[in-house]
Amino acid sequence: METWVVVLIVAKLATAFRNRTTWTGGTPMETWVVVLIVVAVIALIVWGIVSMVHVLQEYERGVVFRLGRVRGRPKGPGLIILLPFGIDRMRTVTIQTVAMNVPPQDVITKDNVTMRVDAVVYARVEEPVAAVVKVQNYLFAVSQSAQTNLRAMLGKYDLDTLLSERESINRELHGVIARVTHEWGVQVLSVEVKDVDLPDDLRRAMAREAEADREARALMISADAERRASRLLSDAAAILSQNPQAMQIRFLQTVAAVATEQNSTLVMPIPIELLSLIGRSSGGDPGNGRPAAPSPPAVPPPTSQTPQGPEEEGRPPERGNGRPG
Fold first, then answer.
1. pLDDT averaged over every residue in the chain
2. Is residue 99 part of a domain?
3. 182 or 313: whose pLDDT is higher?
4. From CA 270, how far away is CA 286, in angstroms rounded?
């Protein structure tokens, strides 16, 4: 509208210039009016040239509308010439990969665990014309689609699956969002679940479970080590039993290892043969070096008595007279 107003003013001024009259008094036109007309025409030409020339970067594409209709394929990059005075209008679209952060969403898993999950979506415009014509704001539309599908997709899994199989969930979520945004000319490159915020009580329960699991594995490893060590000690004892002198050498090595440390313990090695000798001198068993067990008390032999006849069994005993017989 403004362009046609300027054109009408210029035409009226040109008519007045030909008539050499003013609009009011009919006197000859002054020189400053001619200068004003020339300046206006030059400014109009410069403005038209400037509005015709556009430069697009390598990562930009331009969707041109001529009188409201799309002009086929997008323009760019480089120098673009458009018709002035609003005949051609251009919408610039970037084709760079955009990383969109999905706000944290409240998700209820299959096993009724409430958590907050956020994600990131990597997308780029593949068809600029469709991204401009078919959707009003393609970035906002992709973000809303990601939020909706994130809640719906994670609600089908339980907590353990969500924490352990995150890569497969990312691939499935990417496929769902990509099918929705394909009609808008937007290609979704990848979708990744970034953070899973669990409640505090659930975190403590999982920490206790993990600690108990680690302790159980530690006990199993310790028991297996003890079993293998006992087998090796059994083999070593069998080897040492074949050569008694090896036991003495091993004993001396142990004494040397104890003596190297700075401690107040004094170790006095005593040969086993000396203990056997002490056992023999004290009347003990010479075989093991220990004192003999105490012998049981002697039982006196039974005394011999004269048997009594049958006729004397019923006779009362005779009393003595107090005199020696």
1. 77
2. no
3. 182
4. 17
Check: CB of residue 124 under 8 Å from CB of residue 172. no
Coil, helix or strand at residue 312:
coil
* Residue 202, C-beta contacts closer than 8 angstroms, at least 6 positions apart: 113
In-domain check, residue 301 = no
Number of structural domains in the chain: 3
Which amino acid appears at position 160 of this protein?
Answer: D
Cβ-based neighbours of 125, under 8 Å, separated by 6 or more: 61, 93, 94, 95, 131, 138, 185, 186, 187
Asked which of 70, 94, 118 is the last residue of a domain, the reply is 94
Question: Per the structure block, which two tokens stand in for 269?
Answer: 């090695």
Residues 120/105, Cβ–Cβ less than 8 Å? no
Same domain, 124 and 190: yes
Q: What's the CA gap between 172 and 306, in Å, rounded?
A: 116
Could you tell me which residues are beta bridge partners of residue 197? Answer: 116
283 torsion bin: left (phi>0), alpha (psi -120 to 50), beta (else) = left
Within-domain flag for 87: yes
Output the six-digit token pair for 140.
Answer: 């906002």
- Which whole-number Å values give the CA distances from 173 to 96, 169, 189, 192, in the listed order? 22, 6, 11, 8
The helix (run of H) or strand (run of E) holding residue 100 is strand 98-108
Chain segment 104-115, per-residue pLDDT in tens: 988 888 888 888
From the CA atom positions of the chain, what is the Rg in Å? 56
Q: Residue ranges of the alpha helices (H) in the chain?
A: 2-19, 31-52, 128-133, 138-154, 159-164, 166-181, 200-242, 244-260, 272-281
Q: Determine the structural domain holding residue 179 and report its residue range.
A: 104-198
- Give the list of residues 6+ apart from residue 188 with CB closer than 8 angstroms, or none: 121, 122, 123, 142, 174, 177, 178, 181
* Residue 272 pLDDT exceeds 70: no
Domain end point (choices 248, 270, 290): 248
pLDDT value, residue 97: 93
Taking the C-alpha atoms of residue 56 and residue 79, their distance in angstroms, rounded to an integer, is 7
> Structure pTM?
0.55
